[in-house]
Automatic annotation (TrEMBL):
Record-annotated Acyl-CoA oxidase C-alpha1 domain positions: 289-450
GO MF annotations in UniProt: acyl-CoA oxidase activity; ATP binding; FAD binding; fatty acid binding
GO process terms (BP): ascaroside biosynthetic process; fatty acid beta-oxidation using acyl-CoA oxidase; lipid homeostasis
Family indicated by similarity: Belongs to the acyl-CoA oxidase family.
Residues that bind FAD: 153, 192
Entry cofactors: FAD
Pathway(s) of this molecule: Lipid metabolism; peroxisomal fatty acid beta-oxidation
GO CC terms of this entry: peroxisome
Keywords carried by this UniProt record: ATP-binding, FAD, Fatty acid metabolism, Flavoprotein, Lipid metabolism, Nucleotide-binding, Oxidoreductase, Peroxisome
Organism: Caenorhabditis japonica
Subcellular location(s) of the protein: Peroxisome
Name listed for the protein in its UniProt record: Acyl-coenzyme A oxidase
Domain Acyl-CoA oxidase C-terminal: 490-668
Amino acid sequence: MVHHQNKAIREGDNPDLTAERVTGTFDTHSMAAQIYNSEAHARRRREITEIIAKRPELHDTKPFPFMTREEKILESSRKLTLITKHMNEIIEPNNSNEMFHLNNEVLGIEGHPMALHGIMFIPALTAQASEEQQKKWLTRAINREIVGTYAQTELGHGTNLQNLETTATYDVATQEFVLHTPTITGLKWWPGNLGKSSNYAVVVALMFIKGKNYGPHTFMVPLRDEKTHQPLKGITIGDIGPKIAYNVTDNGFLGFDHYRIPRTNLLMRHTRVEPDGTYVKPPHAKINYSAMVHVRSHMITGQAIMLSYALTIATRYSSVRRQGQIDTTQPEVKVLEYQTQQHRLFPYIARAYAFVFAGAETVKLYERVLEEVATGNVSLMADLHALTSGLKSVVSHYTAQGIEQARMACGGHGYSQASYMSEIFGVAVGGCTYEGENMVMLLQLARYLVKSASLVKTGQSSKLGPLVAYLGAKSDSTSLIDRTPTTGFAEYVKTFQHIARRQTLKAADKFFGLMEKGEKRPIAWNKSSVELNRASRLHTRLYIVEAFVRRVEEVADPRLKEVLTDLLHLHVNYELLDMSTYALEDGFVSSSQLDYVRDQLYFYLAKIRPNAVSLVDSWEFSDQELRSVLGRRDGHVYENLFAWAKASPLNKTDVLPSVDKYLKPLMESARASKL
Ligand SMILES: CC/C=C\C/C=C\C/C=C\C/C=C\C/C=C\CCCC(=O)SCCNC(=O)CCNC(=O)[C@H](O)C(C)(C)COP(=O)(O)OP(=O)(O)OC[C@H]1O[C@@H](n2cnc3c(N)ncnc32)[C@H](O)[C@@H]1OP(=O)(O)O
Ligand SMILES: Cc1cc2nc3c(=O)[nH]c(=O)nc-3n(C[C@H](O)[C@H](O)[C@H](O)COP(=O)(O)OP(=O)(O)OC[C@H]3O[C@@H](n4cnc5c(N)ncnc54)[C@H](O)[C@@H]3O)c2cc1C
């Protein structure tokens, strides 16, 4: 038996796909260890996949696209119950990475009845509840004795938290908060699993004490009777209806009618209200936004995974799909041979790797900040907020674009739900909106950049934090790409730094200039906001490139290092071309340098070609996790597409009731009227 570098090879696979795997130059298990940030976790992922493969009760009973929403929720609840019961036989207790993988394999990406419980409810209680409150609720939440969600967004307001309408008014006499929804627009709207599944929620409401508004605060609120699951008195609650995707999650609405909770249900780790109504303020005004920062930090990796699902499907399919000829004397080629197809897919493969490496750094920083905040040190909160706001926006934006390119790369079959592309796109694109609408979050980063620009302009560059230190440096007069014997990544990084610095200082100048001319600050901000968001994007893309460079420098295995270096070359050249306007407009990069960059791009498309399938295989998604006929590991696409179509509910009978009822009579009457 030959041992191949690509560990996905099996006998009996589509030979076109096997041929791609044989040309792979690196060990896909080792690459998985890079992607999942540790050899141990990559191995555990494979072990978990194997355990699940041997347990048919954890498999989908039929393809998701053939189920109604109600069936999907029922099926998801069945499997959720099983994995909860048998969790300790499958994953290490309390290992969130393993849990994430288990969920993706068994439950899939469309959500499940406890999605928000793990992603926001438990993190909110962990970061914001006092020790005493945690004893009361967190253990029960972890044991799943109760199911919770995070209810913040309202029908009328999601972005502007200061203008939420739900109020929590403190009643000193009874030592209770009275939750109330004064208007339709004040209804909570969107929280995942609020509609039908949760019996508790961490609710965000404006807190009023003795007539004073203390702004948004978080409260632990029982919503449903723990035994009957009926809504409690004073609560109006339900599902908001079907969405573009993610329909296994019951996003919900919630209204309060003078609903009372004890004072001690205010989450009091950092903030307190004494029985007499005295308010003890937190060490940082936004400390209770931690559940949002938790998701923003983790969703970078989540988005990279969804982009990679789509790229795995499209790259494998492009290796078995033959259409047309390049040399007319030769047989039809795999569509992956076309340069246009490579240009559509490979730069996104590079981006997916870049995103997952940036995501790993973000989670590390998040965990550090979480530990520090627990001890009262809030000094890094602003940096983390700025970083995650930018990454969340840039990564989700390019992920959505990449998935759409991957769908189109599959031609007509990409449009069939057999490809699963529409669901992957629909779920991923939600990330452009949830956890802060992308434009809004870019503007949050811009606030940080403008403050940093102001330090530069006032000669205080030494006070710049490490993430923005480059803003205080001086650029060379022109980029040295192509002007030195070996154009290394350092030249590219310097060029990206120049572009981000120039745009940041220019946008800040515009903002400060408008104020100098007499505009009020918010008006000047609004008039500069497109330019400011451009700066935020460029800053974030620079960070992503730097994270990629840092990772490649760390890799010891020469085979991995070579292919990751190729990917990084592709990434920096693609990114530079994509933002070439900024590079050209002040002459920092010349058009002849861009010609070099273009040539490099085409060179690396061709160099990556033999490793393309191995690069996507390295994410090690099982067929169960991908849920795509086109993306099957074995490449047997056509026979399985036919089987899939035959299994469509419409094909259960040859003649549909709609035909009997309407079409047959219509045709019959048309025929009769001709007689
Ligand atoms: C291993 C895996 C483990 C776990 C898996 C986890 C994730 C998996 C991956 C994917 C997730 C999958 C599914 C999830 C699906 C759905 C979940 C969606 C849930 C939600 O959407 S919840 C609702 C989210 N809502 C928002 O994000 C609202 C956006 N708005 C805001 O955040 C705020 O309103 C604001 C920041 C825009 C403004 O806030 P404000 O009005 O209070 O602020 P001010 O204008 O007064 O002040 C701004 C000031 O404050 C600073 N600031 C703001 N936020 C923070 C923060 N978090 N930390 C630190 N500082 C903050 C800001 O910088 C400004 O400072 P300045 O000095 O004044 O400039
Ligand atoms: C799939 C999904 C799951 C969700 N899950 C939850 C959940 O579990 N819990 C929860 O509480 N919420 C949840 N939400 C809600 C989500 O967090 C909000 O929809 C999101 O924060 C955006 O707020 P919004 O809907 O008010 O958009 P809006 O703020 O109304 O945005 C509309 C437009 O206005 C622009 N805009 C708004 N304010 C500004 C500004 N200051 N400057 C410039 N432009 C601006 C935006 O850029 C956008 O173009 C979910 C949403 C989705 C789609």
